[in-house]
Every structure is written in C-alpha cells, then in structure tokens.
Amino acid sequence: MKTAKRRSHKSGLAPGTLVHIGEQKTEKMLITHIEYDETSYEMRELEVLRECLPYKDKPSVTWLNIEGLHDVSAIEEMSSCYGLHPLTMEDILNTEQRPKVELFENYIFFVIKMISYDTQNRKLIMEQVSLILCGNTVITFQEKGGDVFDPVRKRLKNNKGLIRKSGADFLAYALLDAVVDEYFGILEKIGDDIEEVEELLLVKPSTDTLRQIHTLKREIISLRKSVWPLRDIISKLEHDATEMISANTRLYLRDLYDHTIQVIDGVETFRDMISGMLDIYLSSVSNRMNEVMKVLTIFASIFIPLTFIAGLYGMNFNTGKSPFNMPELNWYFGYPFALGLMVATAAALLLYFRRKKWF
Amino acid sequence: MKTAKRRSHKSGLAPGTLVHIGEQKTEKMLITHIEYDETSYEMRELEVLRECLPYKDKPSVTWLNIEGLHDVSAIEEMSSCYGLHPLTMEDILNTEQRPKVELFENYIFFVIKMISYDTQNRKLIMEQVSLILCGNTVITFQEKGGDVFDPVRKRLKNNKGLIRKSGADFLAYALLDAVVDEYFGILEKIGDDIEEVEELLLVKPSTDTLRQIHTLKREIISLRKSVWPLRDIISKLEHDATEMISANTRLYLRDLYDHTIQVIDGVETFRDMISGMLDIYLSSVSNRMNEVMKVLTIFASIFIPLTFIAGLYGMNFNTGKSPFNMPELNWYFGYPFALGLMVATAAALLLYFRRKKWF
Amino acid sequence: MKTAKRRSHKSGLAPGTLVHIGEQKTEKMLITHIEYDETSYEMRELEVLRECLPYKDKPSVTWLNIEGLHDVSAIEEMSSCYGLHPLTMEDILNTEQRPKVELFENYIFFVIKMISYDTQNRKLIMEQVSLILCGNTVITFQEKGGDVFDPVRKRLKNNKGLIRKSGADFLAYALLDAVVDEYFGILEKIGDDIEEVEELLLVKPSTDTLRQIHTLKREIISLRKSVWPLRDIISKLEHDATEMISANTRLYLRDLYDHTIQVIDGVETFRDMISGMLDIYLSSVSNRMNEVMKVLTIFASIFIPLTFIAGLYGMNFNTGKSPFNMPELNWYFGYPFALGLMVATAAALLLYFRRKKWF
Amino acid sequence: MKTAKRRSHKSGLAPGTLVHIGEQKTEKMLITHIEYDETSYEMRELEVLRECLPYKDKPSVTWLNIEGLHDVSAIEEMSSCYGLHPLTMEDILNTEQRPKVELFENYIFFVIKMISYDTQNRKLIMEQVSLILCGNTVITFQEKGGDVFDPVRKRLKNNKGLIRKSGADFLAYALLDAVVDEYFGILEKIGDDIEEVEELLLVKPSTDTLRQIHTLKREIISLRKSVWPLRDIISKLEHDATEMISANTRLYLRDLYDHTIQVIDGVETFRDMISGMLDIYLSSVSNRMNEVMKVLTIFASIFIPLTFIAGLYGMNFNTGKSPFNMPELNWYFGYPFALGLMVATAAALLLYFRRKKWF
Amino acid sequence: MKTAKRRSHKSGLAPGTLVHIGEQKTEKMLITHIEYDETSYEMRELEVLRECLPYKDKPSVTWLNIEGLHDVSAIEEMSSCYGLHPLTMEDILNTEQRPKVELFENYIFFVIKMISYDTQNRKLIMEQVSLILCGNTVITFQEKGGDVFDPVRKRLKNNKGLIRKSGADFLAYALLDAVVDEYFGILEKIGDDIEEVEELLLVKPSTDTLRQIHTLKREIISLRKSVWPLRDIISKLEHDATEMISANTRLYLRDLYDHTIQVIDGVETFRDMISGMLDIYLSSVSNRMNEVMKVLTIFASIFIPLTFIAGLYGMNFNTGKSPFNMPELNWYFGYPFALGLMVATAAALLLYFRRKKWF
Question: In the predicted model, what is the mean pLDDT of residues E193-215?
Fold first, then answer.
C-alpha cells in the first residue's frame, strides 16, 4: 500500500525529475569508499561525493557505498560524473521500486530488496538497495546503514576467497549473494513462527490464531514479491550481460540462481502450509461448534423429558373424585416409582448417547 | 456489462461504419491545438478541425487534443486528412474498446483507459483515450475534458525536462506516463478502502462489510482489465515500433513498463488481500455462530436441570399417605435443602463450562 | 452431454462416412444462391444444388447458403463438385463439432457456433455454422434458417461498405463478424440475468437463487466453449492463410480478433462475478442460520430462567411446618415480588443481548 | 494406486528385463494374423508367433493382434524378429504405462488406454493397448480380447472406406480412431450418471450422493489421465513421424486430433459440473441444517413462553393471605384468561415467524 | 524448514567455502571403489581417497562411492584431483540442495534426493545423493550408507544386462534409475496410507483423521519437491549433454523420463485425492452436526409441548369458584384425557418428523 501512497506524490512531474520518494531513514548521508586490488586495500569515509572522482580511471576496483538518499543534489552530481541516465537516478531515489535489472551501454543497474526482521515490533523491514556496476567501479545505494554487507567488507579486508583476485563483477555478485543469504535467515524465522502457530492450532485455536496466520501470509506475500523478480534478475545477468560479467563470475551467478530457486521453493512451501493451516483452523471452528451442540443436546435431551415427568405429577387433577385421576399420587410407593422412572429415563438416554459415541 | 449492452446496438452494421458508441459526456466538442519545438510554443482552441491542416507538414511537433466524440462527421473529416484506416476511426468512436495498440504503415494507434475516482458517488469512473502518433503529430481523443494531461501541458509550456527537446514520440510517451501515474492514485485510494474495511472486519463484521469487500473486488477486477493489456501495449511499442519511436524514448518506455508492472503487482497483491478478507469474514461468521451457540448452551444447560429440580418438588404425591411419598416436603429444612441443591447444581455446571473455557 | 450421446451412434463407422449427427431442425433443405460483383447483384433460391455449378468459374463472388443438413446425398454431391475432402463433409454433417479452422490446399474450412437466446424456454440455443472459402466462392451450411446473416445480405443488396468491392475473403470475414456481433447480444442478456440474480441475492436468497446461479454458470461455460476456439480460428486465418486472404481483409480480421477478445473478457468477468455470487449465497445461508440461532437463543435464554422461577414457587414444601419452608409464599407481597424478580431477570437478559448487539 | 503397487515389484531389476507387470487377464495367448491389400484379404489364427515371419517382407499390409501378455518368451521372440528395442518390449509387458508415443529408427511405438464400462460392477475398466507400426506391418498387443477393434476388422473384410486401399499407417490410424470412438461412449455413460446424480441432489441429497459424486470425480480423473497424453501422441504422430506416415493419413490424424480435443473438452466440462455439484451438495447440507434449526426454534420459541405462563399460574402463593397474591387464580374467568393469554402469545409468535418467512 | 535453519549458519562465508551443512549421519566415512569392464570386476574399500588416483586414467570404468560427508578435507582433496569446481564441492557438502544438474566443461554434476520410509517413526526420510560423471569415472556421495544402489552393484558383479558392456554414462543412468525405482515404492506406501485413511473417513472421521490427511499432504508435497526437478534433470541430460552421454544411454534416459512422468502423475493424482478427502471430511463434520441438531430438535420439539400440557394442568386456578376455571380437573376422565392428549401430540410430532425423513 505504501508503494501507491507515496508514489502518487510524484504524479505529474516530468519523468527523470529527481525526487526522493520514501522515508528519510538516516540523518546524514554516509559515503564509504573502498579501493582494492590483489595486493592493496584502502577504505575511507568521504565527506563529499566528488572526492572519489580521481579514482575513477584507476585499474584497481572501487566500491562506493552511499547510505541515505535524501541529499538529492549530491546524488545528481554523481549522475553526470559516471554518465548515468536520468531514469537510473530517478529509480535510485524512488525507494518503492520493484526489484529489476537494467542493462545500459556502459553500466548495469539493478535494484533489490534487503529484508531484515525487526524483533521489537515483530515485523519484516524492507530496505531498497540499488547497485551500479560500471567498469571497475561498483556503486551501492542504501536507504540506511545495515550490516548485511559487513561479511563482504571483512572478506575484502582479510583477502579471503576469490574476492580480491577478481574484478568488480565478482564484487557485485558477492553483494547480491550477501542479500540472498539474508533471505535464508528470514525464511528460518518465518518457519519458526509457522511451527509456533501450528502448535497453537492444535492446542487452543482462537481468532487470534487466525490473525497470526494472516500476518504470516502477508509476510510470505511480501517476501515473494522480493524474491521472484530476483530470479529473473540473476538469470538476465548470467545470460545477457556477457560483456561486463566474466565467465567465472557467471558460474557463481548460476550457483546464486540455485540459491534463489531454493528460497522461492521455501516460500512456496510455506504458502502451501499456511493455506493448510487455514483449513485446519476452519475445521477446528466447526468441530468446536459440534462439541457445543453435543453438550447442549445431551443436557436438553436428558433433562427435558425428566422435567416433563415431574410436570406430569405436578398436575392438579382432583384425585379424590375419580379412580382414573392420577392414582399414582395415592400409591404407597408413588414417589419412589416416579423417581425410578426418571432415573431409568436418564440412564436410557445416557446409554443412547454413549452408543452414538458422543462422550 | 455496459460493454455488451451498448455494443449490441451496433450489431448488423458494416464494419468500418462510424457510429459513436457510449454516453455523450460533454456538450461541445473541444479541439485544442498545441504546436511546439525547442524554442517556440503555441496553443490555440480550434473551432473546426480543418484549421489544423496547414500545420500538418511543419517540422515542429503538433498535439491535437479532441474532447467529446459525438460529432462523427468532424472526426470522419480527420480520417481522410491524416490517412487513417476506417477501422481506426471506428475504434476511436467506440468507447468500450479494450486497451490495445495497432501499428499501421504510417501511424501508431492505441487505446487506453483513464481511471478516476468519483468521490461523490464513491466509484471508479473509466474514460477511454485514443492516441494516434503519426509522423510529428500526436492526436488524442478524450470522451470528456479531464485534467490528467494538464501536467504535460504545463511542462510543454514551461519547457521543463526533455519534452520540448524531443519529438512527437516522446510526447506520446509523456501522455501514456501521465495516465499510468493516475493509476497509482487509484491504487492508493483502493488501498485506503481496503485498510478501512479490514478494520471493520476486526471490529464489527456485518453483511454490509461483505458487500464492501465485493465492491472492492469489482474495482480491482475492472482496474485489472485496464492495466494488464497496457503491459502488452508498452512492450509492443518498445520492441515492434522501431521506426516511429526513437532509441531514447524507448528507454523511457522501458521505465514506464516497470511502472506498469508495479501497478499490476499492486493490483495482484490487493486481489490476494481481498480473498484473505473473505476468509476472515466467513470464519468470523462461524465464530459468531459459535458464540451464540455457547450462550444458548450455557443458559439451557444450567436452567433446565434447575427447572427439573423445581418441577420435582412441585409434584403432588400425597405425602400423608406414605412415608415414601416425598418426605423432603415435610422436612424442617426441606426448602433450604432444595435451594442448596439448585445452587450446587448451578455451581457445578458453571465450573464445568469454565473448565471448557467457554467464558 | 449431448455431444457424447449422439456422437457415439457413429462409433464403429469408417472415418469419412457421411452421416448426419444431430437433430433435424428444419423440414426442407433450402439453398440460397447469391452472386455479386461491384456492379451487379443477383439472388436466387435453388431447387437442386447442382444448379450452382455453372457459376463456379465466373469472376464474380458467389455465396451459397444451405439451410438444413439432413439431405446427405445432396451435400455429398457438392463435395465432388468443389473438390472437398471427405473429412470436411463429415465435419459439416456432424453438428457437434468444436469450433475449428482447417486449411486445405484449395480451400479454407471452418466451423463456428451461432448462439441465440430462446426467450420462451429461457435458454441458449446453439447452432453450428460451417463455412467454406474456396476461390471466389463462399459456402455456408446452417442447421436451420436464422436471421444472423440478414444484415450481411442487406449490405450486399444495398452495396453498403466495402463488401461488394471486395472478394470472397471479405464476405467470409463479414459472416464471421455477424456471428461475433451476436455474441455481444448474448453477453448482454446474460449480464442482465446476472444483475437480476444479484438483486435477488440481496433481497431474498433461496435455493432457487442457487439454481439460477448454476444455470448462469452453465450458460457461461457453454458460451466459453464456443468463444475461446474462435480466437485461435481468427488468429490462424489472419496469420496462416496468407494466400487466400488479402492484406486488407487481414486488417479487418485483426479488428474482429479484438472483438473476440472483448467477448472473452466479458465471459471471464462474468465467471468471476458468478463465483463471487456463490460466495455471497453461501455466506447468506450462514448468516440466516446465525439469525435463526439468535432468535432461539434469545427466547430460550429469557424464558427458561423465568420458567425456573415460576417452577420454584410451584414447589409443594409444606409451608406451615417450618419457618424455612418457602416463607415467600406467605408474604404479603410474595406474588408481586416473584413477578418483579421475573421482570428484572428478563430485563437484565434483554440488556445483555442488547449489549451483544444481537438485535 | 495399483500402478505404484505393482510397479515396485520390478524395482531392482536391470532396465530392459522382460517381466509381465499386471494381472493375467486371459488364459491363452491368442494371435490373430490378418493380411490384406486392395484386392485380397486373409485372416488366420496362429499357434506360434513365428508362423508370421514369412509374411514379413511381402508388399501387402500385415496386422498382427496379440491378446494376452503373460507368455514372455513368445513376445521376446518377436523382439528379435522385428528388431525391436528391449525397452519397447519392456513397455509392452508393463501394463501400467502412461499413454505415450516413441519414434525409433525403424518403427513407431505407442501405448494407449482402452476404456470400457463394466455394467455389472459399475466401474470403468482400463486395458492397455500397445501398437507398433513397422514398415507395412502393424502389431497390436492387448491384455485380453475385446471388441473395440471389431469394426475395423469388419471394414477390412468388407472393403469399406479407404482402409484396404491405404497402407499400414492408415490401419494404425483406424485402430487409434476406434479407441477414441470408445471414449465418446464412456463420456456418454458418465454424462448419464452425472444427470442422475444431479436429480438426486435436487430431490434427496444424502452422504451417499456425496460418495457417488466422488466416484464420478475419480472416473473423470482416470479418464483424463488417459486422454490428455493421447493429444500429444496424435500431435507428435502428425508432425514428427513424417517418414512413416503418409500425407493423406496425416489429414485423418488431424481429424482424430479434433476428436480427442472434443473428448478433452467433454472431460473438462464434466470436471466443472462435478465441482459445481459439490457446491450444491454442501449448500444443501447447510440448508437442511437451517431447516432443522428453524423447526427447533419455532417449537421452542412458541412452547417455552407458554410453559412459562402455565408455570406462573402453578405457583403456590397463598392467595388467601393477601389480595396481591395471585388474584387471577380467584377470578371468575381466570382460567379462560390464562388460556387466552397463551393463545394470544402463540399467535403473536406464529405471526412473527410468518413475517420472517420461516414457514 | 530445516533447509532455512541450517542453511543460515553459513550466511556470511565466502561462496566456495567448504562447510558440511546438515546432520552427520554416519560415524566413519566409507569409500568403496569399484572398477570394471566387460571382462573384469574389482571392488575394494579404500582407507584414503587418494588411493583411487592411479585408476584415474585407466580405460575401465571406475565407480567411487563415498558414504558420509563430514570429512571435509578428504573431499577437498578429491576436488583438486578430478578438477572439480569449488562450487561443486560446496554443493556436495550442503545436503539441503534442490535436485539439479550442472554441466561443466569436463564433468556433469547432479544432485538428487533418495527417499526411504522409516517404518518405526512412520515418516519419510530424505537423503541427498550427489553424482559426478567425469570421463569414465562415476563418483557418488551419500550422506549415509543405504541399500538403494545394491541392485546395481549386484548387476555389476553378476554381469547382468548391458551394464558391464556400457560406459560410465550407463552406470550413471543405472544409479538414477535405481533412485527412481525407489520412488515407486514410496508412492505405493503413500497409496496404502491414503486407502487406510479413506476407510477411516467413511467409518469414523475424527480430528485425528484430519491430522493424518495433513501428514499425507505434507509427504506428497515433499515428494513433489524431489520429483519435479528430476524431470528437468533427466530431460537436460538427454538433450544437452550430448558429448558425455552416448546415443544408446540416451534411449534409456528417455525411458527413465517416462518413469519420472509416471511418478509425477501418481503424485498429482494423490494430491487430487487428498483434497477430495478434505472435502469429504469437512462435509462429514457438517453432517454430524446435522445429526446432533436433529436429535436435539426431535427431543426438544416433542417434550416441550408435552411439558407445556403438564404445566397447564398444574395451574392452581381455584376450580371451585367458577365453572370456567379448569373444569377438566374435575372431570371423571380428566387424567386419561390429559394423558391421551399428550400421547396424541407426541404421535403427531413423531409422524411429522418421520415425514421429514429425520429418522
């Protein structure tokens, strides 16, 4: 819903007009500049974006990470510096994009969704990450600082794995990989929630359980919306962007593609399980109604006949005037007889319901 | 439904016969003629369509906007002037078209749906817009005047963005873009309604809520019918109309395509949410029935046994004649005993229902 | 169902054996022969099919319309005359075909379904029309005479539109167009029925309404079965039959294709609406049950306690023997007290149910 | 289920090992050998398969029909004689194949399902037929003798239609056609059953009806599993097996393809109808519950208040001691008043329920 | 769920890092080395993986089976020896892969799922098998030892079928075939369970039955997840891996493909049946509620009127004071009349319910 709400503020502006759409999630824009090759590694925080320009044509790989998107003019500056299309800049600033990849002549641009779980408010938080791969430079734009990219930074610093030996395309892959790895954690969290709700369903289903099921359903829907396009993105990177992505990195992308399919598989399985939970919930509601009805029926069916018998002998026919008028009332064992009749009736009915396996 | 109803009036006529199908939504046909290039901009209202002919072969871009479709002969005149196919003219006049694009040898023709929200009658209003891109001329046909195209007019006037620097194909794109931007507003409005109905569902679901859910469902269906074909239209424009649409405009069309996908995503999410709301509604009906049943069962199960006890001691066995006949009635504490028996019975039953967590 | 039933009579015969499958819907076979070119127009009724042979090689367009299919030998004669394949003849005589198009070397054959609404029996009537386009001759086979083709005949006679100026392919198109136009009328009729049933649903849903919903559903299913294949037929005509269909007619076929899509859209929308109506029906059944339960619960929950109180003071404890035995019965205001207790109980319960918003 | 059960007996054997999987449905293996060309026709029963070898290279068409599959060695013999692949032989012996076609270098092999209706046990019987088209020889394998191929034999004998004039490919087509013709009969039978159950649904739905609906559903599912692959088989024969199938036979295959589509259409329509029947059944269950509830509510709501009134005047307040204590009991018209009160109450309630249209 | 849970432990590591993900299912890693050609067969257990290296370039076929995946360094050793890509090694160690095939320049790698049924805990056990076909060597990795491959070993030893005469590609096929054969057994087991639950459904449906239905549904879902990808794997092997797989083996793969389709067919049929069982369960719950309601209604509707009559004659109108006040009480046959009235009422009601076919 937010998508529509905020997006409509922009309606009427010329396409390509740079406006930041979305919440401002961080106070100050933070620019981290990492430069590395197989032997050297340097990381600095920049005050102004333009400080990074001199590094543009160096042979080493440059990673420029920008956190916070509200300083529109600074970002616009970059546009002209790296020769980005105005529409790309517009997409970066609009944080309600759908995940997508776009191949331009001199760069690849893609938008993905980073998902984290806010344990305090118990809900998923989605953050947009834009990534530009342009020659030997990777530029990433985040709405606010996060620690998803930290493992990549560490591997860069400690020169672990292939990352320092490979080009900017491998760095782009590694960042994508870090995001997809996060999805597994989210899946795990949702899986735990599903198990919890399933146990609740068996023990004590309530309207609250129904609400939890629907919350889970929504989380799955929003996860789905982030993951499905990812599949196309990676497939497109692997098959169409042959010039900018090396054969080796493509092998890794194929692996990442498999991981994405795995996440999608998990999401779809959860969808199936949640719809099964709805079935169980609804049939448990029916079962409980059945229970209630049985209790009512047993009580009513036993006591109404008894009350009738009691009422019978409460009638005021003048017994003295005619031998036909309620001779039972005058019997010596009249009362025990009536009580016995009642007990027999109750026992017969109890037996009847027992036979029907109602209790 | 309207589609069928009105459409059938035409059945039996030769294809290509020009008849205006649909309501007449404006009194007078209004023709606005805008001519511009990078340096100049001129806007006039024409009395007669033929006034625009002299501009036809000028190098500047011409935008001819026609509001009101009932003057069939005037529109027919244009047909011959711009070399339009009779079927195109027929489609323009039939306001119950499905959104579509058609590529002719010398022009591109497409039909789209403009959607606005009538706040007074609380319903969606759909208006058909036909657009012809023919050389450096764009001709738009609207059923009645609206303000969706106003932002484009303003940008033309104030020379904002690329629009004055680009050709007629960019103008066509800008108009399409304006329509799609409107859809975001409609989505937002429907999103608000959904949230409202969802709250109602939790607080006090009624048959009225059900009706609202179905109204929302219908709005989503009709929005869907307008948006899905749009996707194919833009894709076709981007990929097939290579001669009439420049490479630069195609980049913008790709962007527009993404927006359309975003609208479709929103529509589909809403569909999911609405079907979830139906589930909740139905299970809330069941739950309420459960509640009602519980109240009945508790009342009946407690008071029927009590009434039985009261009935028991209301029997008229002649107590004097036999020591077995209801000695309780003669006990000193008979009545308190009976009352106690009742209270104990009621307490036991209350405890029983408490145990079952029925209240 | 009929399809299967009648079709099986033929099982075991050699393929290509000519047998008329289906009801005989008209008494006499009627052959109308129309010959025209841009300047001349001639229409005659033939006694025998072979009378049309001399016109076969004329340059003017010939339209042969045959109503009634039971005279198998006459139709067989035509087969040899126009060089039709035995399977084509078999398909023409089997009136339970699925709509389809078949391209032969020297002719195009297609089968479509004409649908009309029988206002007396309130049901859809389906009639099969076979059409052969063979050089400059069009041959149509109808089960019985209808007026669907009348507008085409009029246009031919009055030389309206392109029809007299164009070839046999355009005539074939015009006839197809006439059939599709009929579908709009049927859609309109079903749309009216749906609206009617929807109002019934809101006012007084009954099992009868359910039956009407299912009748509508069936009509939609059978309409669907006729319309969906039509789409493929027209698409195939437009794209594959390039030799026999001129470029101009192809433009018109594209238009017809759009109309077919529009009918399909309508059919699908109706399907959605009908399934929505089922939802409403089912939830209205639940709601009514809820209502019934509430009435029962209110009555029972109010009067059972009152009856208990009455029963209480109907007990026969000997009041004289002990001050504890029902002193109320001897109070001066005992009866008003009991009545007051009853009124208070009833009022409290009414208030309770009022609070629960049960009435 | 059977598929899995029996199939697993074979697990662990080398692929290509010949084992007969399935029931032995006939006692003796029966080999019929038919040889024909346009002028001659000869039919013999063979004792041993090898008797047919001399005919192998004759120009006339040979049809070898084998009934009973348990004599594995005899069938193995044929394998070497006609140069069949071991996997083909394995597929022939495994009677739980899915319908399929396989093109080998020198022959075409396909498996189809013959369905017949066992009127005694009221269930569908499925029999597997394997067919090999190898040069001018057609070999068919049946589990047991049936009369589905009888019409083809008669046509061969009586030289009806094209069959004697055409090659082995046409014979293969004719046999396929005979099987598909059988499907129409099965469809008809299921259609009759559906109509029967539908009437039951309207008159007196019971759990038994539900069971019948599910039996129908299963029959449709199993029919579906036989028919859907058939479509691919015929399409593959028509388009891929260009060397072994003549152009003329291909025309007939196209026709057969249409018949298959017709059967599929019927099957899908029945699926829709059956799911509609489930809807009706479920809502009829709800309706009956509604009925029951109404009866209960009317009885309880009318008689409980009356019983209360009766209970009221059954209270034992000492009327003599106070003028307030139940003066009604002493009124001259007390009893008629009470009776009147009761009648009035009952009438009011009846009117109330009448207003609610409960009866 | 497990997939996500364990998978997330790895998040943050460099891609290609070798970590064993999954339970350690066996204590010691077991390496079996089989070498064979048409004439010779040798099988040994290796202590160290490197012992197998000398056999690498021999012309005979080598099958290396490794059970247990926890000895990461040993497996890494193999990586370098056979020139495997790090990602392949990573996939082998991660036992929560989705079934897939990957073609590398010098080898084919695929992952499949072996499924067995644990009769003690009554649940499916899934084990991952990775297979590498590299020249004339096949390497298989299992989580723990199993007997699924035993039949293949026996055939190798006893030189049965084609296996010893064919290359490593046929061995790979034979192993795949063994796994698919296992699936038939699992299908059979699930089929038996379904039949059992179906009988329970008809005899005595309970919430326990519902739980069993859902267990079955889950098993089917997990089987589905293993089987569907298998289809793509085999299809890819058959069509893309033309260099490493011989034409003859491809024929066998086509056969295996058919088996896989058969398993998929079975799985989908079971899905349909299980959803049908849910329908029956839910409607049986409704039916039972109906039953309960009928019992209640019959008891209440018969005895409440009787109680009313009894209550009527329990009223205390002073009969002496007025001839209108309850003269029945003084009639000679008053009591028999009242009893008769009751019996008549009860009989009439019983008749009424009998008419309604309630019992």
Answer: 84
Domain membership of residue A293 (yes or no) is no
Query: Which residues in chain D are closer than 8 Å to C293, comparing Cβ atoms?
Result: 293, 297
- CATH number, domain of A47, equals 3.30.460.20
Closest Cα in chain B to A320: B318
C14, part of any domain: yes
What range does the domain containing D326 cover?
A: 287-355
Q: Are residues A83 and A213 in the same domain?
A: yes
Give phi and psi for C11, each to the nearest 5.
-60, 135
Residues D202 and D306 in one domain: no
Contacts of B306 in chain C (CB under 8 A): 308
Q: What is the pLDDT of residues E255-310, one digit of tens each?
A: 899 999 999 999 998 988 888 888 888 888 888 888 888 899 998 999 999 999 99
pLDDT for the residue numbered E58: 79
**Domain shared by B178 and B51, yes or no:** yes
pLDDT higher than threshold 50 for residue B2 = no
Non-local (6+) Cβ contacts of C187 within 8 A are B3, B4, C223, C263, C266, C267, C270
**A246 occurs within a structural domain:** yes
What is the number of CB-based contacts under 8 A between chain B and chain C?
Answer: 176
3-state secondary structure of D118: strand
E307 within 8 A of C311, measured Cβ to Cβ: no
Task: Clarify whether residues C22 and C98 are in a common domain.
Answer: yes
Q: How distant is the Cα of B7 from the closest Cα of chain A, in angstroms?
A: 34
Tens digits of per-residue pLDDT, A126-184? 889 999 998 889 999 998 777 788 889 988 988 888 888 888 999 999 999 999 988 98
Beta bridge partners of B102: B109
Query: What's the distance, CA A265 to chain centroid?
Result: 14
Q: Are residues E123 and E272 in the same domain?
A: yes
Of the candidates A261, A237, A259, the residue with the CA atom closest to the CA atom of residue A250: A237
**Residues of chain E with C-beta less than 8 angstroms from the C-beta of D217:** 276
Is the ipTM higher than 0.90? The answer is no
> B316, A314: Cβ pair inside 8 Å?
yes
Residues of chain B found within 8 Å of residue A10, distances taken between Cβ atoms? 181
Q: DSSP labels for A14-47?
A: PTT----BS----SS-EEEEEEE-SS-EEEEEES
Are both E255 and E326 inside the same structural domain? no
CA distance C142 to C148: 11
Task: Report the domain count for chain B.
Answer: 2
Q: Which of D283, D310, D337 is the last residue of a domain?
A: D283
In a domain, A300, yes or no: no
Question: What pLDDT sits at residue B69?
Answer: 82
Contact check, Cβ <8 Å, E311/A312: no
Structure tokens at B338: 């009976």
E203, E164: one domain: yes
Query: Quick one: A27 and A153 in the same domain?
Result: yes
Residue of chain D whose alpha carbon sits nearest to that of C327: D317
CB contact under 8 A, C287 and B286: no
Strands B137-142 and C100-103: unpaired
A100: nearest CA partner in chain B? B258
Residue at which a domain ends, from D266, D283, D300:
D283
Name the residue facing E287 among D11, D285, D296 (closest C-beta). Answer: D285
Greater confidence (D304 vs A324) lies with D304
- C69 with C93: CB under 8 angstroms? yes
| Cβ within 8 Å of residue C126, ≥6 positions away | C113, C114, C115, C222, C226
Contact B100, B233 (CB under 8 A): yes
Comparing alpha-carbon positions, the chain C residue that sits nearest to B212 is C280
Which residue out of C170, C315, C329 would a mutagenesis test of the B interface target, given it has the greatest number of B Cβ atoms within 10 Å? C315
Please tell me the predicted confidence (pLDDT) of residue D4: 39
**Backbone φ/ψ region at B159: left (φ over 0), alpha (ψ -120 to 50), beta:** left
Q: Does residue C21 register a pLDDT over 90?
A: no
